[in-house]
Amino acid sequence: MADILRDILKKHKIQQSVVAKALGLQRVNINRYDNMIERSVKEVILISKATGIPFSELIGIDSKDIKNVDRFLKKLGKVEKSINEEQNEN
Fold first, then answer.
1. Based on the number of CB atoms within 10 Å of its own CB, is 14 exposed (0-12), middle (13-18) or buried (19 or more)?
2. Which of 27, 46, 47, 70 could form a disulfide with 20 if both were Cys (CB 3.0 to 4.6 A apart)?
3. DSSP symbol at 34
4. What is the DSSP string of 54-81?
5. Domain boundaries, the chain
6. Looking at residue 3, what DSSP letter applies?
7. How buried is 13 (Cβ within 10 angstroms: 0-12 exposed, 13-18 middle, 19+ buried)?
8. What is the fold, at CATH topology level, of the domain defined by 5-89?
9. How far apart are CA 71 and CA 68, in angstroms?
10. Which residues does the UniProt record annotate as the domain HTH cro/C1-type (predicted)?
């Protein structure tokens, strides 16, 4: 089972307020996010971007292919950014 979010943040020495701000929550509501498997992909990506913690670690994937998942998500983020920039130009 994946570690709970608070334990992961503690391991990385990241304050819960960083995640709360990224999600637009008050810090006291962070314990609702302890089981990352129950969160949407969008929320986990926001947490990953805000903290620098790999998506795979947040959801507790343990596999030799984990780097491929993280690479895919980084590439996806670049594609989304490019699409957004194109839309803003038009």
1. middle
2. 27
3. S
4. -HHHHHT--STTHHHHHHHHHHHHHHHH
5. 5-89
6. P
7. exposed
8. 434 Repressor (Amino-terminal Domain) (1.10.260)
9. 5
10. 5-58
